[in-house]
Automatic annotation (TrEMBL):
The keyword Transmembrane helix applies. It is found in: Membrane. Keywords: Membrane, Transmembrane, Transmembrane helix. It comes from Novosphingobium taihuense. The keyword Secreted does not apply. It is a multi-pass membrane protein. InterPro entries: EamA_dom, EmrE-like. Residues 5-111 form the EamA domain. GO terms for cellular component: membrane. This is Drug/metabolite transporter (DMT)-like permease. Belongs to the drug/metabolite transporter (DMT) superfamily. 10 TMS drug/metabolite exporter (DME) (TC 2.A.7.3) family. The chain crosses the membrane at residues 12-32, 44-63, 69-88, 95-111, 117-139, 151-173, 185-208, 215-236, 242-259.
Length: 272
């Protein structure tokens, strides 16, 4: 969809579709009682966080190779651990500092060519990672206040509001990259597909973060990095150079180290 519609508008349409679909399902399953917003301030933070992440990452993949943008966004586990310490008062372990320093060395390796080519916009995936980290922390604060379905509707509808506001501001900003032209039918269909698949993914993430700490869950999503790199290579011919590939491996290694260090002695070790 790059070049057909801006990332801000794609994100907004995706979340509008998601909010409508989730709202219908929520009404059928739980009735009007499901439309509650417990701990409203944290719900607003959840919506803002997902909007920030969506706008940043959707815009980033229009400008950068998809695999590299995704790799940088996977600093989220380290940022999550830091925010969990600051916001949730979870202990900040030595392993967290080690993983964070190592991961951001990988980020610098990937940013090397993109920063020279794109300038500060190359940091968009870092902003996306911060948004996702905030979402995971906020998920923890609202855990147990509603069903997984109602929580997903809440984040989708609030996120859609923030994304629509951002899209309008971008359109009238005078920046060509954010101008919103007429909606192509192909974009409409693709956004609907994204709404379904991403809403399912967010539901699984929410359920996971209510069962365990956010810093423990975040590294489990690294399969996305492998898929993004593979699709970027196969569909768009985006082949990372050796340094960028090494940077991605460093980020993954740091995330897995952080996850492994957080396992209790009674938990089984990760095996093939």
């Amino acid at each position: 969809m790059a070049g057909a519609w801006p990332g801000t508008a794609i994100g907004a349409l995706r979340y509008v579709f998601g909010a409508i679909g989730l709202g219908i399902i929520l009404f059928v399953r739980e009735g009007s009682g499901g439309f509650a917003f417990p701990r409203l301030r944290w719900q607003v933070l959840r919506g803002f966080s997902v909007a920030l992440s969506a706008m940043s990452l959707f815009s980033a993949v229009h400008l950068m190779p998809i695999g590299e943008a995704t790799a940088i966004s996977f600093t989220s586990p380290m940022i999550t651990a830091i925010l969990a310490a600051v916001i949730l008062s979870e202990p900040m372990r030595r392993e967290t500092w080690i993983a964070t320093i190592v991961a951001f060395s990988g980020v610098l390796a990937i940013l090397r060519p993109n920063l020279a080519l794109l300038g500060p916009v190359a940091f968009l995936p870092v902003i996306a990672a911060t948004g996702m980290a905030l979402l995971m922390v906020a998920n923890r604060k609202v855990a147990g206040t509603g069903t997984a379905l109602s929580m997903q509707f809440n984040v989708a509808v609030i996120g859609a509001v923030f994304l629509c506001i951002g899209t309008i501001i971008g359109h009238f900003s005078g920046v060509h990259f954010f101008e919103v032209p007429a909606l192509p039918f192909s974009v409409l269909v693709k956004c609907a597909i994204i709404a379904v698949t991403a809403s399912l993914a967010h539901a699984f993430i929410y359920i996971a973060t209510t069962k365990a700490g956010p810093a423990a869950i975040a590294p489990m999503t690294y399969v996305q990095l492998l898929m993004a790199g593979s699709f970027g290579w196969l569909l768009f011919g985006e082949r990372p150079d050796i340094v960028s590939a090494a940077g991605a491996l460093v980020i993954v290694g740091a995330g897995l180290y952080l996850w492994r260090s957080g396992k209790s002695p009674s938990e089984p070790a990760m095996t093939d």
